[in-house]
Specification:
alpha+beta, nine-stranded antiparallel beta sheet, two-stranded antiparallel ribbon, 11 strands, about 35% strand, globular
């Protein structure tokens, strides 16, 4: 089961948990209000999993690939790790399904604070277009993940500041509506 928490301000190794003391846990409902969708699937049987097939059909995820992030598997590993950890947004949703290993997605909350989401085998996450986020491995230094896309894949990351993009403006409108509906 996914676990999330508010991060501390430490500048130590990005791969450590960075929990505040005391820990400030973040619920799945809090993530949902940020537009983050979490699902738990059977990663051992991802090739034949009817739940994954249903999600792909319902969400129109027509394209997928599998990426392994490990120093022996990913060309330009050190450069890629730094790039993944730069705060950025995408113009499309980012969908990742962890097949092996583990890592962290960090997302900004409505007050611009970092929330760390610990991802492990079987976890699927959808980050909405326009949310500022970043990714890092954890101390295990290995993850194998499925990347899913609607249509042709687009990997373009727009580093912060990127507030003028329509996807960011739409995301900010979504947050405002969530805040209004939550009152």
């Amino acid at each position: 089961m996914v676990e999330a928490w508010y991060m501390d301000e430490s500048q130590e190794d990005q791969r450590t948990p960075h929990r505040q003391r005391p820990n400030r846990a973040v619920s799945l409902e809090q993530l949902r209000r940020l537009g983050v969708v979490y699902r738990r699937l059977d990663a051992d049987n991802y090739e034949t999993d009817p739940c994954l097939k249903e999600i792909r059909k319902a969400e129109n995820y027509s394209w997928m690939d599998i990426v392994t992030i490990h120093k022996d598997k990913l060309p330009n590993y050190e450069e890629k790790i730094k790039t993944f950890y730069e705060e950025h947004l995408h113009l499309d949703d980012e969908i990742r399904y962890i097949l092996e290993g583990s890592g962290y997605f960090d997302v900004r909350d409505k007050d611009d604070k970092w929330i760390r989401i610990s991802m492990e085998k079987g976890d699927m996450i959808t980050l909405p277009a326009g949310i500022y986020h970043r990714f890092t491995l954890d101390e295990n230094n290995y993850v194998k993940a499925m990347r899913l896309f609607v249509g042709e894949p687009v990997w373009t990351a727009y580093n912060r500041p990127a507030d003028d993009f329509p996807a960011r403006k739409q995301y900010m409108k979504f947050l405002a509506e969530e805040a209004h509906n939550g009152v």
